[in-house]
Design a protein that fits this description.
Radius of gyration: 34 Å
Strand order of the largest sheet: 2-3-1-6
CATH class of the domain at 4-78: Alpha Beta
Low-confidence stretches: none
Shape: elongated
CATH architecture of the domain at 4-78: 2-Layer Sandwich
CATH superfamily of the domain at 4-78: RRM (RNA recognition motif) domain
CATH topology of the domain at 4-78: Alpha-Beta Plaits
Largest sheet: 4 strands, antiparallel
Order of helices and strands: EHEEHEEEH
Helix content: 10-25%
Length: 158
């Protein structure tokens, strides 16, 4: 069980000091975070209080939930775990593939970093490309057959 509590319905003029004083009745308060609007900086009327032990957090819920604090009745409950935010932008799915406009993945291609005997590490050490392979062109067996419409008999109408 977590030690962090969510406190809602707080009066807008609440300070961290007043909230710490209130929660110290149930035990030692380790941190307080009041939620503010990112654009205006105005207090949103809710916050988080972290207690030093789970027993103190349970006691704070039992004692302070529904209590009149300054001018409003506050709610105290266990805080839900914080969701991880994406770090940075960009597409987070699989890269490449036919759907994304990239080349389809080949089943027999070696994985990056791995090398087989005569693989990319051996070629780079020799400084030459293997003979018989044209750069950038696929062998004719690897290309799909061109689809041609079946020839239709041409008949001219008189």
């Amino acid at each position: 069980m977590a030690k962090e509590l969510y406190v809602g319905s707080l009066p807008y003029d609440t300070t961290e000091y007043e909230l710490e004083k209130l929660f110290s009745v149930s035990g030692r308060v380790t941190s307080i975070h009041l939620i503010t609007d990112t654009q205006t900086g105005r207090f949103m009327g809710c916050g988080y209080v972290r207690m030093s032990t789970e027993a103190e957090a349970k006691d704070a819920i039992a004692t302070l939930d529904g209590v009149l604090f300054l001018t409003k009745t506050i709610t105290v409950s266990m805080a839900n775990p914080q969701k991880q935010k994406n770090q940075g932008g960009g597409y987070k799915g699989k890269a490449g593939g036919a759907k994304m406009g990239g080349a389809p993945k080949r089943a027999g291609a070696p994985k990056a970093g791995g090398s087989k005997a005569g693989g990319s590490a051996a070629r780079s050490a020799a400084g030459a490309k293997p003979a018989g392979k044209a750069t950038g062109a696929k062998p004719s067996a690897a290309r799909p057959a061109a689809k041609r419409p079946a020839s239709k008999p041409t008949s001219k109408k008189p």
